Amino acid sequence: MTSLPYIGQQFTLYVGLYFLITGLTGSIMLIFIFISVFSYRRTPCTFYFIIATVHDCGQLIARLAPYVVSAYLNIDITRISASWCKLRFFFATSLGAIPLTCACLATIDQFLVTSQNVRFRQWSSIKIAYRVCSFFIIIWWLHGALWLYYQNISPITGTCVYLNSNFHVYAIIFVFSMLCFIHIIIMATFACLAYRNIHKTATLSRQNVDRQMTMMVCIQVFLIVIGLSPYGIDIAHIFATSNIQKSDDRKAKEAWAATITYILCFLAYG
């Protein structure tokens, strides 16, 4: 009978490689289309998409690519490189949070631009988009720097570990709440409101563009939900059962589930 670690390794190699290739291809095409059309460059929603897609590419290259390479070579890169041990979660938190925040901003922008309220529509401005996006990029990159300080290779086990137990708890709560569910709730809420606005309003300024962008936003929200929800649930389960004695069989099954949900979360970034 094929062991679960082997299944997880093969899943990481083939499905992860598929997500890597298609994700990078789609992201590069999206950036090219949005940059090449002037009207798209001046739209706040597409600006958020451009920033998110650039960081999506970084997420795929910095997080998924090494994971696929590790599965192919059957080695854990974080065990042999202290620098990568630190950088892995620095990239994971920074590059992971920025696209999700931009997706939230794009969803909110679609709610504003499709609103019947003139004051709401005025908040959909490219200047405001520049300022808000710059603010969150700086915040998330500075926040990610915490992982550079609190992670290193353990001299006892030789694995990449958190140096502070309290920060370990914070990291789990952060991934579960902020990266997985708070962003999803915000996106789902404003996507529904924007969809309702379109159906309530007969004529909208820039109606054709807004309908297309709203559909893109809704599709992005759907991919984020199905990609990140299982990963968040798995993180919550691991945290809730961290003090329970587990058999080797249960540990193997949980490690297999963690691998599957981790790879699937890249649906949200590809």
Distance between the termini: 33 Å
Helix content: over 70%
Which CATH class is shown?
Mainly Alpha
Any idea what the shape is? Answer: elongated
Please state the second-level CATH architecture: Up-down Bundle
Uncertain stretches: none
Task: Note the main sheet.
Answer: 2 strands, antiparallel
> What's the count of strands?
2
Which features does this protein show?
270 residues; mainly alpha; Rhopdopsin 7-helix transmembrane proteins; two-stranded antiparallel sheet; 11 helices; 2% strand
Could you please describe the fold and organization of this structure?
This protein is mostly helical. It has one domain (2-268): Up-down Bundle (Rhopdopsin 7-helix transmembrane proteins), CATH 1.20.1070. Helix content is 81%, strand content 2%. It is built from eleven helices and two strands; from the N terminus they run H-H-H-H-H-H-H-H-E-E-H-H-H. The chain has helices at residues 4-36, 38-41, 44-73, 77-80, 82-113, 118-122, 126-144, 146-150, 165-200, 207-240, 248-264; strands at 151-153, 160-162. It has a two-stranded antiparallel ribbon. Helix 5 (82-113) packs antiparallel against helix 7, helix 5 runs parallel beside helix 9 and helix 9 (165-200) packs antiparallel against helix 10 (207-240). The longest helix has 36 residues, at 165-200. The protein starts with a helix and ends in a 6-residue tail after the last helix. The model has no long low-confidence stretch (mean pLDDT 81). It comes from Rotaria magnacalcarata. This is G-protein coupled receptors family 1 profile domain-containing protein. One of its GO terms (cellular component) is membrane.
